[in-house]
Amino acid sequence: MVHQSLKSLTEAKEILIQSRGKLRDQSDRIEKAIELAALIQTAANAMQGKEEALFGQEMKSMMSDPKGKAFTTEMTDQAFRSSNAYRAADQLCYLLSRFGVPSFLKGIKYWGMHLFSLCGKPLAKVMIPIVQEMIRKETSRVILPGEKKAFKQHLEERRKEGIRVNLNHLGEAILGEEEAKKRLNTYLEDLKDPDVEYVSVKISTLFSQIHLLAWEETLVQLAEPYRRLLRAANQFLYTGKEGVPIPKFINLDMEEYRDLRLTVALFKQVLSEPEFLNTSAGIVLQSYLPDSYAILQELSEFSQERMSRGGAPLKVRIVKGANLAMETVEASMRGWSQAPFCHKVEVDANFKRMVHCAFQPQSAKALHVGIGSHNLFDLSYAMLLREEREVVPYVVFEMLEGMADASRRAIQTLTDEMLLYCPVAEASEFQNAVAYLVRRLDENTGPENYLRVSFGLAPGSHAWQKQADLFASAFRRIEKLPSVPRRQQNRKYIQEERGCCQFRNEPDTDFCLPQNRKWADEIFNKAQQESQAIPSITFLDREQVERALSSASVALSVEERLAALEKAVILFRENRGDLLAAMLLHSAKPLVEGDPEVSEAIDFIDYYIRSYKEWASCPDLKLSPKGVVLIASPWNFPCSIPTGGIAAALTAGNAVLFKPAPEAVHVGKIVAELF
Fold this sequence. Notes:
With about 675 residues, the protein is of the alpha/beta class. Helix content is about 55%, strand content about 10%. It has helices at about 1-20, 25-45, 50-65, 65-80, 85-100, 105-120, 125-140, 150-160, 175-190, 215-235, 260-270, 290-310, 325-335, 345-360, 360-365, 375-390, 405-415, 430-445, 450-455, 460-475, 515-530, 540-550, 560-575, 575-585, 590-615, 640-650, 665-675; strands at about 145, 165-170, 200, 240, 245, 250, 280-285, 315-320, 365-370, 395-400, 420-425, 630, 655-660. An eight-stranded parallel beta barrel has the order 2-3-6-7-8-9-10-11, surrounded by nine helices. Strands 4-5 form a two-stranded antiparallel ribbon. The chain has a two-stranded parallel sheet with strand order 12-13. Strand 9, helix 16 (about 375-390) and strand 10 (about 395-400) form a beta-alpha-beta unit. Helix 24 (about 575-585) packs antiparallel against helix 27. The longest helix has 26 residues, at about 590-615. The protein is globular, with a radius of gyration of 30 Å. It starts with a helix and ends with a helix.
């Protein structure tokens, strides 16, 4: 086995040496990358230890067991949400009865789960801590223990192996500024630790009230803690390989699409300040977003201009992206296009396109590159390209802690350096660790994910050839890839189209997009201008109410009525801004809360029109109006609740008297005018 690994790695090194400074055509690059990947995989298989092999077999069994994967995902996601041992045991027993004990579990784990299904609930206080400890032990290879002694020991072991560690504290979401301060102090304490070199930070942990419609104010709030981290990184030095003290490194991580442009803006703004001209720092870009390619070019130009003024190089870490499920769900709920690409081949193609862009010598010198992937084909291609373009000093390969350790050792042998992305959680942060596990399980077990098939993968096998074909096919998609965002909504110029066949919810406004934030600014300005002339409210007396009631009637046919309501749908769309301004000014409703309310109002009208048409087509139904309907709506939903009531009454042919709450009368006035 040792002989086989040495032989394969020697051949791999020879391929890399032959690549230095030599330009070759793309087909040759692809062919050589597949050959190099096969040699690395062969070496990794030969280097694999017994424990790693058992872990790989278990993961492979889980991937091929749909029920086992579902049980594992739901157990980690659901069973330990509660700190009450009995409730946790009850949920775990329910999942065991639903899915059965997973067949991929072996030995004591398998029989332990059987035992839990029998006596887990009555012995919950004893059994649940045992299960939690078992999960912590099983996941310790991918999540570092945050307790000081164990954490320090792990860092020392990695340092002896020549591995650099990128520290990532789990539990990114924070609920208030006290938590934000606590997290900032955690980062600062990390930077004081002489064993810590590299820390990843998400902007969502620096400030709890991130608001896209308060762009400049949010940047001000984010900038100060970011500056403090950069100052600490410069102050508390790390002793590098050669025994030379070097500044520590802060990496701005990326998660939600909504944070993409804000993170980039923070990165550029603070690192443009004279104080940080000589500070190196990093940022992550995800290739599953088409936006990332243009941003990479933007950051390359920024870094080169900065270096021309005597500044230090910056760094970009290129990854594929790990939040696809969340982005898909959010887009579906809000009626938006999905921000990431819809097809894995496009993600892979964009990854390669970004690598090509980042590996341009002039760019790489100013904007160093981290290649974050476990796909041996992509890693091999990047290794070849960095040799060919002679950018070796500016490129580092990065992998996840505890995933594919044998492959990591083989790559480290070939590249002389490895940076591991290491999640950290203390025992008290078990929930955070579980949330991370759920996300990783979902990401890594996806049908098109390389890691799904990587366990036990052998060059020459059918599974290997399929992965090689997928790798090669991605290059053919590069020229057709868009560089513009997939989300293109523009509230100022574009009205959403419904189509005539099927009901679908009205999309909310996507405030991630700069054109929509500009539109929102115009609404704010309009509300400020009108705030000086708020009219008084007039109340009707009894005689006026009785006159209104006696004169209320409907003289429209069904066809005229429905046509008028269809026009109302269009008018509500066109007047979204006026409704939002009125809610903001008169009902103190923020735009981000008022906007979904307008969408709901439009949905009410459209849905009732469609429902009435469906019922009217039934020959055994006779539809007749009630007469006069009073809509007396509350203040808290000044647009959607009255619109729903008015639309329902008018669709059915009734006359409507509308009495909004006093706090919502001005919004009600616009609603009445649109109808």
